[in-house]
Amino acid sequence: MGGLSDLLDKHVRNGAVPGAVGLVVRRGRAEAAAVGSASVGGAPMARDSIFRIASITKPITAAALMMLVEDGSVALDNPVDEWLPELAKPSVVRTPASEVDDVVPATRPITVFDLLTSRAGYGFASDFTLPGVQRLFSVQRDGREVQSFPAPDVWMAELSRIPLLYQPGEAWLYDTCSVLQGVLVSRVSGQPLPEFMAERVFEPLGMTDSGFEVPAGQRDRFTSYYRTGPDGALELADAPDGQWSTRPALPLGSGGLASTADDWLAFGQMLLAGGTTPRGRLLSADSVRLMTTDHTTPAQREIGALFLEGQGWGFGASVDIAPIDPWNIPGRYGWVGGTGTSAHITPSTGTVAILFTQVAADSPIPPQWMRDFWRYAAS
Asked: Which of 2, 18, 104, 160 is the most buried (most CB within 10 A)?
């Protein structure tokens, strides 16, 4: 059986991805591979290449919010309307299939815990044809187009005009709650989200290549980003001097970060260590336990089943609960990004598994190269 480099190189040679960086760390023993190129026909991929990491931003945002919980600045059971007054009196569609003007009042306030577990009532269900989901698309735009979002106050005002799809706490819905977490972090802390993360997360962890924009001095390591066209060929979607070359109006807690595999590894190892780092404790063991524990019910998971395969949801990421596939090890925590990224920790085996590529994954069903990597990491 070949190693990680051989596995990833196979998918470069068949044209699925221009390049990839993979890291598998098992109980302190690391295997790394950088294969292919950073852009089609460009420079070779390197271990420190920078990627748009998309939705594996979500657990980092959740960790940032938990730091404010530990500070005592906000509590899990607090209604969010003190800091997000736009959500003070939300309306809810009468049924999930109702038109957006057929609404009832929310039966209780949205709490911080609702946002962290993606159960506030905002977000995407499996059925995209629902009128409330269709209306949400006009505000919750494609998170890979980071410059398409307005400033936080404008975005919050737009969101407040859309009814919740479910009552607070009733359903697990994808994506929107992580944007709200980022806005909440900023308003509670009094700092823009990039500054808070830089000070409280990136600097203590040594995540020197992570941020919501890529400075000019780092763009020689920044990969190009591609989407698959109708004919199956890769089409350039964003270049190093594109959307991440300036800070976006709304730094997306749901998916706005650029980073490297080793930066995310530092974050994952902190979680595996129960919140500790070589420089000291970043989170309490109780906070990490809350983040990496499934908080959903079977009925809630069914509503968002399109996004979950043998998984529930913790804070900011999935938690494996059913061994559907070889890589679904109960307790495995992490997520995937729509730009072709994947990052998980598995506490029972002491594993961190990270795969960064630069090709959009436009389906909730992970591509074959990602599944092959997961199988390898679990072996």
From this structure: 18
